[in-house]
Amino acid sequence: MTPSAATEAEPLIPVVRARTVYIETFGCQMNLADTEVVLARLGEAGYRRVAEVEQASLVLYNTCAVRDHAEAKVRGRLGALKGLKRRRPELKIGIMGCMAQREKEQLLAAYPHVDLVVGTDQFVRMPQLLDQLEDQGRLAATSFGDFEDRMWSATRSSGVNAWVPIMRGCNYNCTYCVVPFTRGREKSRAPAQIEDEVRRLVDEGFAQVTLLGQTVDSYGKTLGDGTTLAALLRRVHAIDGLKRLRFVTSHPKDITDELLDTMAALPKVAKHLHVPAQCGSDRILRLMGRRYSRADYLDMVRRARARMPEIELLTDIIVGFPRETDEDFAQTVALMEEVRFAGAYVFMYSQRPDTPAANLPDDVPVEVKKARCNHLLDLQLVHQGQAYAPLTGRVLQVLVEGPSKSDEAMLHGRSLGNLNIVFPRVDAAGTGRDDLIGQLVDVRIARSTSLTLFGDVVA
Ligand code: 5AD
Ligand code: SF4
Predict the structure, then answer these.
(1) Average pLDDT of the chain to the nearest whole number
(2) Cβ contacts of residue 13 below 8 Å, gap of 6+?
(3) Number of the ligand closest to the Cα of 345
(4) Angle at 416 between CA 414 and CA 419, to 5 degrees
(5) Which ligand ends up closest to the CA of 214?
């Protein structure tokens, strides 16, 4: 059959097969990991993932509630689905993730075309909830439940990187943050189960594993048997064939000397900490309920660098928290100057309903928030440029992750820290190098921008 004949034979509206799911994920890595779990459960129930909303019998949004902006995006998506639902009333629309957990039944009231609202401990039951829908119509399932083992087993597309949740929830109560409401109390997963999963992933060919938790360095506390993240790192590190081991996100208060000593001693563990400072002013840190001072944070940095001089520190910063003055902001600038982070995510404070900080007036004008945000982003780029320039000529070990997103002619990977390094996808003789994907290679750095290091493979 000629291609044109095939095109003619195709109906104008794509055929929607039974049990097809379109899922879009917003927010953090934990949500991406949850999406892999829900796809595994739906796969067991006969669902196939499709790339277009129009081809789906089920549309799911796995949502984020950390900032208003993330929720606004989902509201936009939901609004756009109204017409499709009118044309295809049998289409099921579900909302899962933190926004679902936060708003619960209110979402069903606000969006009459949404069928299902599924909380952060309930999505593992998605197939059963879909069956329930057939019987009883629209529903919200948002209770915090027992932690099922099946919660963890996930479908991953093959690749280099696998993310493995090792805990859920958060026991901190930072005053600005919805996560304690949307993800509940901290619960750690048993180390033997994590080890088994990583072993399986390595057998499947994954080279790099990132252990995930909201405050990953408090891993083990709820197990009550003295298990720590350091002990887990030692256990997972011993798995033959694993090339790199990472973990995110850390709370500054839980970075122990034991953890730092372990990171320093284990060669496959990335010399990298994502350890949000949030702010450099003690006054604001107290209002944020962060439970450390500026001096504590700097002490943690000193302890880390004493053991791993080249460790790369990545931070999150919130600007424009209620009552943040120019003087408070200057303290954040000074902290960034002092630490010189390898990377920074900078956010404008977004007041979240029901959080303790919502009792304080959101009194920093949005133009001031924007200006402070841009100031820090510019400063960070200067710091990165200054850190990268002296790396020219150095040879760094890179785990190759795949083609560069911004330039198909290049491969990209990360250093043992977290530096983004790219090199040509073909060698000087014109031979392709895609077989290096998933391998550790030595790359000599030739030049850099403030975002990327460019080099070539050392023979
Ligand atoms: N407003 C702005 N940023 C926030 N974050 C968490 N809550 C808020 C909020 N209400 C940021 C913090 C956190 C990151 C995941 O999101 O910096 O580390
Ligand atoms: Fe939110 Fe604080 Fe918990 Fe991080 S540590 S998830 S910012 S409450």
Answers:
(1) 94
(2) 54
(3) 1
(4) 40
(5) 2
CA of 170 to the centre of ligand 2 (A): 6
Q: How many residues does the chain have?
A: 459
Within a domain: 175: yes
Half-sphere exposure of 187 (CA within 13 A, CB side): 15
Distance CA 266, CA 328 (A): 38
Does 153 fall in a domain?
A: no
Residue 299 has pLDDT above 50, yes or no: yes
Write the DSSP symbol of residue 190.
P
- The answer on 403 and 338 residing in a single domain is no
pTM (whole model) above 0.90: yes
Same domain, 39 and 133: yes
- Check: CB of residue 188 under 8 Å from CB of residue 227: yes
Query: For residues 390 and 419, what is the distance between their CA atoms, to the nearest angstrom?
Result: 14
- Ligand 1 neighbourhood includes 318 CB (under 6 angstroms): yes
| 43 & 94 share domain | yes
| 152 falls within a domain | no
Residue-wise pLDDT tens digits, 221-267: 999 999 999 999 999 999 999 999 999 999 999 999 999 999 999 99
State which residues form the domain around 35. Answer: 20-141
Whether 54 and 125 share a structural domain: yes
Q: What is the CATH number for 111? A: 3.40.50.12160
Best residue among 171, 172, 176 to mutate for probing ligand 2's pocket (most ligand atoms within 8 Å of CB) is 172
* CATH number of the domain bearing residue 206: 3.30.750.210
Is pLDDT above 50 for 3?
no
Look at the chain and report how many structural domains it folds into.
4
Mutate to test the pocket of ligand 1, among 30, 67, 279 (most ligand atoms within 8 A of CB): 67
Considering the domain architecture, whether residues 53 and 119 belong to the same structural domain is answered as yes
In a domain, 186, yes or no: yes
Protein residue with least CA distance to atom 4, ligand 2: 214
Indicate if ligand 1 lies below 6 Å from the C-beta of 347.
yes
The number of the ligand 2 atom at minimal distance from the alpha carbon of 178 is 1
Q: What is the pLDDT of residues 192-234, one digit of tens each?
A: 999 999 999 999 999 999 999 999 999 999 999 999 999 999 9
Q: How far apart are CA 311 and CA 51, in angstroms?
A: 39
User: Residues with beta carbon inside 6 Å of ligand 2?
Assistant: 170, 172-174, 177, 179-180, 214-215, 251
The closest of 59, 89, 55, 65 to 77, measured between CA atoms, is 59
